[in-house]
Amino acid sequence: MFPCVFQAILIFCWVYVRKYQSRRESEVISTITAIFALAVALISSALLPVDIFLVSYMKNQNGTFKDWADANVSRQIEDTVLYGYYTLYSIILFCVFLWIPFVYFYYEEKEEDDGNTCSQVKTALKYTLGFITICAVLLLIGAFVPLDIPNKKNSTEWEKVKLLFEEFGSSHGLTALAFSISSLTVIGMLAAITYTAYGMSALPLNLIKGTTSAAYERLENTEDIEEVEQHLLRIKSKCRDGRPLSSRDRRTVQQLEERLRTLRRRERHLESIEKSWWTKFCEAIRPLKIVWGVFFIIVALLFTVSLFLSNLDKALHSAGFDSGFIILGTNLTNPLNMLLPVLQTVFPLDYILITTIVMYFIFTSMAGIRNMGIWFFWIRLYKIRRGKTRPQALLFLCMILLLIVLHTSYMIYSLAPQYVMYGSQKYLVQVRCNTFFLKKNLAFCIKNVLLRVTFKARNKLYQCIVTRTYLFLHKFWFFSAAYYFGNWAFIAVFLIGLIVSCCKGKKSVIEGEVDEDDSDMSDDELSVYY
């Protein structure tokens, strides 16, 4: 089954990247880099339900461990999953801090200097060295930040340093990797707040409202062309007697000519769309688009309500900011937190739902990125357009999607904390003289395990096993606190985006396809899409 999943992920990434990359400026290395980075992100998210399934499969429905799941076997399974996360997260660090920056800067230099390849490589390596330095700093901070402060007040500085190295050796680098990945996850959280939250509202409402008619837009465009041409004639008529135009009129003529070229490109695009079979097909399935739009807005509202209840539960019942707003159980009912443990009993229903959630986040993120473009504060860097995305913009796109998918694991934890921590596990509590056992539900299991982790309870036979994903997500309390406040910001941006999307009218049928900075050569790609 897993080879089929990997093949499906690679095929999806290839189709996705090829859909948006420019046919005229496509580069093999940038294409491979984008496909590989996006595939690694999706594979790492696919490991989450596998992790949850394995810890759940070790125990029977009555709360006892299965015969084969002794201490050694359980440890081997946990280590296997942990090594899988080690490998994938290490590859993600390699992509984010070395491979993608190098390829990006290489193509930036290639546009400026087409001659010397060696010089381009050297310059790209020079800029990439800065990213490598940032990665090294994050790894060092994560490796030597003490999680447990020594209780001895009279301990020397050498003993404190020795304790740091002992902690680093006992964790086998887990803390360093977890700190680096958590730092990237915070960046992914910011990208999700910016793009995913807005895309969750923009995508379904655009499907429901649809686009304007190509014939109607073409009629309006023809009227605009005639108006611009008449304006040009009026200005140029001033110099029929040999008098030169004023500087103001020359600037106006230049602006009108650029406007006229843009309108004529729009005319060619609209004409191609109006005659294409794809437009007729989209008109035929218009009712289906409305159904999908209604479904997506319901899913978005379900996610938002679940996230709101989860955050409200943390605000009311958690131990506070210093603990990262971690709660010892679920006190408020959460729809997804109830649904996922039920689906988890019938494999692979929960896997399908988790995959659907991840793909939903990707599609909504892509909708947000395409509507907004890639910005650096108030500076617009790149536009994402079907078949016209430059190699550098494509690398930026996959970098953002990689970080968003990385943050998806915590989003799923926020939506269903019990499911991500323990799956469908149950445990037994000894009541009388080792002869009578009472089965407890999962909410009490959370408190039991946290006590075990903190106070190291003696009896380990009937304790629940925590997923490796949870350990990565909550290694540092301050990251958990950042995720908590990020969830509130996500909800706020979604609601603002929902209001903005409701107030906006229908999109143009060629929205984002024609801009004033496009060259006339971009019209050569019309036949590929229409």
Automatic annotation (TrEMBL):
Cellular component terms (Gene Ontology): lysosomal membrane
Transmembrane annotation, as ranges: 28-48, 83-107, 127-147, 174-198, 290-309, 351-381, 393-413, 476-500
Domain of life: Eukaryota
Record has Coiled coil as a keyword: yes
Topology of this chain in the membrane: Multi-pass membrane protein
Compartmental location: Lysosome membrane
UniProt keyword annotations, A-Z: Cobalamin, Cobalt, Coiled coil, Lysosome, Membrane, Transmembrane, Transmembrane helix, Transport
Cross-referenced Pfam families: LMBR1
GO terms, molecular function: cobalamin binding
GO biological process, one term: protein localization to lysosome
Ranges in coiled-coil conformation: 246-273
Protein family per UniProt: Belongs to the LIMR family. LMBRD1 subfamily.
Designated name of the protein: Lysosomal cobalamin transport escort protein LMBD1
